[in-house]
Amino acid sequence: MRGVQAGREYYISMCPLGLVPKIFVFNETGLTAQQRSQRQLNRGRIPQITKYLVENKTDYVFSAITASIDGEAVFMPNASDDLTGTLRVQMKHAKLIINDGQHRRAAIEAAIEQVPELADETIAVVLFYDRGLARCQQMFADLNRHAVRPSKSLGVLYDHRDGLAMMSKLLLSRVPGLSELIEFEKTSLSPRSKPLFTLSAFYTATEALLSDLDMEESEREANAGDFWEAVALHMPHWSEVTSGAMTSGSLRDTYINSHSVVLHALGKVGNTMLRSSTIANPNAAMEGLTMIDWRKSSPLWDGRCVIAGKMSKAHHSVLLTANAIKQQLGMPLSAGEHSLELGFKGISNAA
After folding, report:
1. Is the separation of the CB atoms in 164 and 203 below 8 Å?
2. In DSSP terms, which residues pair with 74 in a beta bridge?
3. Number of domains in the chain
4. Which of 114, 145, 176 is the last residue of a domain?
5. Which of 21, 58, 253, 276 has the most CB atoms less than 10 A away?
6. By residue range, what is the domain housing residue 329?
7. Confidence label for 279 from pLDDT (cuts 50, 70 and 90)
């Protein structure tokens, strides 16, 4: 099919996946950035895309490949419609150079080796005339100029393949008091918004909660639901935000229990609870949350998740914050956690 953009002809065709590696060229190895028409091939991405294609061979989606015709080509329209026809490219002297889609091309080639029947399926191809390196580089810049990756929260919300994403959304539907505090789409939270946490933060915390638990899926779901329900019930100030008595912004300014580092740490605390046979009732265990001093100014958090007066999301901060919560709840620390505490307090293991 023939179209026009910026006064120039371009063409759209359906190409069998089996032909993609054979007719589309991507060979810019050894060239400098100035000499290439797009970014270098990142081979680390190829196995991920290949796995996606192979594991979802009945339910995958690939966007079009964009390429330039470097050589002679003639469009021969159909008699009944001058917008459709046959594009004849002299492949003996011409090349089809990929402007956008080199990782898809490499993944398609690898996937067909594992699932040969994919070769008969098709992908859309958009073809432009090659007008030199500068034009190809400009095409790459223009094609990616306005590309915006969706927020991680929106990715979790719309993902129906990731079991953890599905579990996270299911848990929130079970715990309305917590669900009201979750931002499901945006990556940042405004001071006047009701949500305290993003969906991606809850996803990360739930991942920590369920990490390496030897349970059936239904048991994992039930225990995780009980845990987050208990947290929402006993966490100070959260209900004030849901009722409108306090804004999330004012809570974040003064207290740490409105920040994702604490939610992540709580997931780790819950993981220890679910592993312990001595803690049979998460609701009773979580009652101690009401007695913890969650003020940002409290010495308890200094150097853990509050560094020089600012909140830290570093992994080290998550671990130290989880340690503090465990100790406040009367939970024992593991050998590794105890060693981390000694290091944090400046006490040597030998001592």
Report:
1. yes
2. 88
3. 2
4. 145
5. 21
6. 152-344
7. low
